[in-house]
Write a structure and sequence with these properties.
2 domains, mainly beta, 39% strand, binds calcium ion, 6-stranded mixed beta sheet, 5-stranded antiparallel beta sheet, 1 helix, 1% helix, Immunoglobulin-like, single chain
Length: 311
């Protein structure tokens, strides 16, 4: 993985056509031409097990900037922005960072793409109620991290949380959560970028919004994260699909499904542009989550997204 420079843009799809964002091109690196050197390779693991609320560091470990945010937060937001302009830049780290959210409802995490200048920006979805958010980087000496205590209020506990993450070189993977019987890109029964970002489809009880899904993180670039939250489930099956919507290199994405008190994490097969990963199903009738791991090449039926009747 190469280091990145420049501005990381967190883009939220609005209505209308998607635009291609190419901000944050990979930087050249002095070590790139040295044989046998992977400039982004990490020789360490980020460890959060010893973290306490606030800043955690150790002699020789990565240097964290002074966080200007409080470490105990009450919010009604469903998303936390992990941003070096707020939390401070990181120095002397070996490769990208990690984030993780842990709560009684479940847990989820991902990488933090970090430039050689110490800047980073990603987003973490929040569960309802109390939770910890850990953000950290490592080097040979150990891990430096922040632990934030976050209380998310004005929300419904439980429900379904589906989180997709992917790495460098693949622009704009698209997360879909469907109601039973629907096909991908259904205008009413597929929660995705066209239906579920600035608005929500009316699922569950007609006219009630508390049971409607929402895509609270939508990502158009690489090093992405997307998240869909469905507060209340109907007694039906919900397929989960992922489109490789944009351009870029083949990539393996990671999907975490938090439902019924358990977290299931699946890695995709290698996905190429205009592939659809039929990732799995959440069955609210049996309270089970199953992966399928099928991939469909949709390039012959692609019109602002896959038009095939899948799953
Ligand atoms: Ca509703």
């Amino acid at each position: 993985m190469r280091p990145w420079i420049g501005v990381f843009v967190i883009a939220t799809a609005s209505c209308g056509a998607k635009s291609e964002l190419n901000i944050g091109e990979p930087a050249s690196h002095a070590n790139e031409n040295e044989p046998g050197v992977d400039p982004g390779a990490t020789s360490c693991d980020v460890v959060f097990s010893d973290a306490t609320p606030g800043k955690n560091t150790c002699p020789g470990c990565p240097t964290l900037g002074s966080a200007s945010t409080g470490f105990e937060q009450v919010t009604s937001d469903s998303v936390f922005s992990i941003d070096s302009t707020v939390l401070g830049r990181v120095r002397d780290n070996d490769g990208p960072g990690k984030w993780q959210v842990v709560s009684a409802e479940g847990n989820v995490g991902g990488d933090i793409a970090t430039g050689s200048d110490g800047f980073y920006a990603t987003k973490a979805p929040l569960f309802c109620g109390a939770q910890t958010l850990d953000i950290g980087w490592c080097n040979d000496a150990g891990t430096s991290s922040y632990r934030l205590l976050i209380e998310r209020q004005a929300c419904v506990a439980g429900g379904l949380h589906v989180t997709l993450t992917w790495g460098e070189g693949a622009n704009d993977l698209e997360l879909h959560l469907l109601r039973e019987g629907a096909y991908i890109n259904d205008p009413l029964n597929d929660c995705t970028w066209t239906t579920c970002v600035d608005t929500s489809p009316d699922w569950g009880q007609p006219g009630q919004s508390v049971d409607d899904p929402h895509k609270d993180i939508d990502w158009l670039d690489d090093n992405g994260v997307e998240n869909i939250e469905l507060p209340l489930l109907e007694l039906m099956r919900y397929p989960i699909l992922v489109e490789y919507w944009g351009t870029g290199e083949p990539i393996e994405a990671v999907l975490t499904v938090n439902a019924f008190g358990t977290a299931s994490t699946w890695s995709s097969p290698l996905l190429s542009p205009q592939d659809v990963w039929i990732a799995g199903t959440v069955d609210a009738t049996t309270r089970t989550v199953k992966t399928r791991a099928g991939v469909v090449d949709c390039s012959d039926a692609w019109r602002s997204g896959c038009q095939l009747p899948i799953p």
